[in-house]
């Protein structure tokens, strides 16, 4: 059954209906919330379609901001119910603008249903550069690329790598893709010695400990097992090192067990979900992301805004290296990772917020582009190429 939460605002702002799996703290969801918070909500509003019964992390905030959440049946559970409920959500929202987060075949189905329900401007945003399914997954993605590019009126990506994976090189060459950065409120990320001391005190970390930070869901994509191997070797050189893992996920228990086997569990802090990422970044000495694949990892942008040096896998797009402080490494050499983490952790911390702003990562500027793109006209959107 379709369930809508919260009431419409009375001043009838223009609305955007966003279709997502859930509104937890993933990178795509966080991107939407960053844009939503900055909107003039007397003129522009955002509503969300989610699947499943679990209430998402951001849903309370969405309601406070005046948005609505439509909870529908998963298409894989009951397709007829899903189609009926999504149709009702699109019609109830009364808005021609529908944005789908994701770029797989199921995403294309969502936009197709929305179009049949009366939506006239369809947007698709992709942020990944793989689906983690190897050759078969890549073949399927190429096979569905044509229906994806044909049904979405506007294709959005945070990087060229993500755009090429989702929409194909031809779409890029034809100028069909619009790029929106994972922008930030840069002032929130200014390094704070006070926050550093407060977080370290909370987590039981010494002032002089080498703190290696990671933010990400406990999924296969984030490659925590490799991170544990690197950290185990790092401890042989820096016995005072500590690893802080921020996030939750289905593999957390497995990672705890792996850490126990490696004998490093007592040197690791699992924080769970946190809303104070800027403060945590102030407490870190280096940021590490050994992901198997990424499109444009928002958290590496955040880490650079906080002045951190980053060590990431060479599967990550080079476009993420905004400040020049990101090292890209292969999985074949653990010692190289250890040495790079040590060097990055001892590097001087420099305020890079102006550099980030000049590169287009100031939320105040990027939200203007977002408004022009999703609430404006096609002619206005062309200037965002």
Automatic annotation (TrEMBL):
Entry keyword annotation includes Transferase: yes
Alphabetic keyword roster: Glycosyltransferase, Transferase
GO molecular function annotation: glycosyltransferase activity
EC main group: transferase
UniProt superkingdom: Bacteria
Entry's EC annotation: 2.4.-.-
Residue ranges occupied by any Glycosyl transferase family domain in the UniProt entry: 196-315
CDD domains according to UniProt: GT4_CapH-like
UniProt entry tagged with the keyword Metal-binding: no
Protein's recorded name: Glycosyltransferase EpsF
Organism (species): Collinsella aerofaciens
High-level lineage: Bacteria, Bacillati, Actinomycetota, Coriobacteriia, Coriobacteriales
